[in-house]
Amino acid sequence: LNMQNSKKKVNINKNNNFEDYFNAYKSNYDLNNNSIISELFDIFYGYTLQCYTCYNHQWYVENSKYINFSLDDIRKDNFNIEINIYEFFDNYYQGRKQLFQHCFNCGKQNIFQQLNSLFLPRILIVNFDYGKGSQNNIINIKYEESLNLERYNTYRNSYHHYDLIGAICYTKNNSGDMQYIAFCKNSKNNKWYKYI
Predict the structure, then answer these.
(1) Which one of 5, 46, 56, 154 is separated from 27 by 20 to 30 angstroms, measured CA to CA?
(2) Phi, psi dihedral angles at 92 (to 5 degrees)
(3) Is the dihedral of CA 195, 35, 23, 122 positive or negative?
């Protein structure tokens, strides 16, 4: 297995369109990072950065091994809430202002980031980050054992249908201490097992 760069950014060539650049980035990355890990887990994101000060826009692509959803981004006012996993993907495509991102042209921190393209891997890992604002909330994430992400997948050759095979939770036990609990599905008998 070779070393992986978890978050590699490359600036766009202004003579290309976004789709050409996205495809060129991915092809170049695949040539230089040929491994089982990359083949199974690599996710590619294509973004547009729009500066609201000078109105310059910039495209870039980055990759990672899992999708990270922040519960702070979608947190509601209720103490006990239930969120469907599809709400996180919907929120991902709405775009957001980047507080710590500088414009490549004028250097101002007035950037709006919009996700344009998404390449999904063969095995999808999703991480839910509580952040600071949601630590005191009880948040239940609703999901089906079969997940269809076709409407979010913009890259024609990537995967979009996933079957849930495992989940890891960080929660309190009966003594009030925090611990990890794993739930895994046995593919032979289709039964779920809990590991403490």
Answers:
(1) 56
(2) -60, -35
(3) negative
